[in-house]
Amino acid sequence: MSTITQNIDLTKAAHVGISVSDLDRSVEFYRALTGNDPVVFDETMSSVRFGHSQGLSTAVLRYATINLDNIGIDLIQFQDPEGEPTRGAANRPGSMHLCLLVDDFDAVYRRMQEAGFDFLGPDYTFQPGEVTPEDAVGTQVAYFNDPDGTNLEIIAPKGGFAN
């Protein structure tokens, strides 16, 4: 990797792209999770040049986009070349997670459990002495995966902590 020598000042996100193995299954999962229908569904692309832009030999894919209030989620099923699952455990460098902000943590957590979402472990509330800044104490979180193992989180921040 090259050395970064200056600030680029990128400050807004347009979307997060998530590679999936089955577009239809993932659309249903994210539709249930967000309550939103895709704004784009079952679009296709087939391009050697686009594949090259991503370090691939080619790119044949299907995709869908589900918009949240502040960011889009692009679900992308690469058909050629097909990829291997990352199995991105939270502590593995290069893994990422998508964090979804909720107002009433307990109600959302309960609804998700009733709907059949499987959490990776019990929900957690940040405790004094465990986290800085101190105003993060009381923040509630819970982690789960999408059907392909993408790390997801729900969070109800306290004291203005939202990252």
Keywords:
single chain, 163 residues, alpha/beta, 2,3-Dihydroxybiphenyl 1,2-Dioxygenase, domain 1, 2 domains, 4-stranded mixed β-sheet, 3 helices, 8 strands, globular
Topology:
Blueprint: E1 15-19, H1 23-34, E2 40-47, H2 48-53, E3 59-67, E4 72-80, E5 97-101, H3 105-115, E6 124-125, E7 140-145, E8 151-156
Parallel strand pairs: 1-4, 5-8
Antiparallel strand pairs: 2-3, 3-4, 6-7, 7-8
Count of alpha and pi helical runs:
3
Distance between the termini: 26 Å
Q: By helix and strand content, what is the structural category?
A: alpha/beta
Shape: globular
What is the average of the pLDDT values? 91
CATH superfamily (homologous) name of the largest domain: 2,3-Dihydroxybiphenyl 1,2-Dioxygenase, domain 1
Q: Give Rg in angstroms.
A: 18 Å
Number of domains: 2
User: Which architecture name of the largest domain does CATH use?
Assistant: Roll
CATH class of the largest domain: Alpha Beta
Strand content: 25-35%
CATH fold-level label of the largest domain = 2,3-Dihydroxybiphenyl 1,2-Dioxygenase, domain 1
Count of distinct strands: 8
Question: Can you write the helix and strand succession as a string?
Answer: EHEHEEEHEEE
Strand ordering within the main sheet: 1-4-3-2
Note the main sheet. Answer: 4 strands, mixed
Share of helical residues:
10-25%
Q: Which residues sit in consecutive blocks of at least 5 with pLDDT less than 50?
A: none
Polypeptide structure, described:
With 163 residues, the chain is α/β, with parallel strands linked by helices. The chain has helices at residues 23-34, 48-53, 105-115; strands at residues 15-19, 40-47, 59-67, 72-80, 97-101, 124-125, 140-145, 151-156. The protein has 2 domains: 15-80, 2,3-Dihydroxybiphenyl 1,2-Dioxygenase, domain 1 (Roll), CATH 3.10.180.10; 97-156, 2,3-Dihydroxybiphenyl 1,2-Dioxygenase, domain 1. 18% of the residues lie in helices and 31% in strands. The strands form 2 sheets. The chain has a 4-stranded mixed β-sheet with strand order 1-4-3-2. Strand 7 (140-145) and strand 8 (151-156) form a beta hairpin.
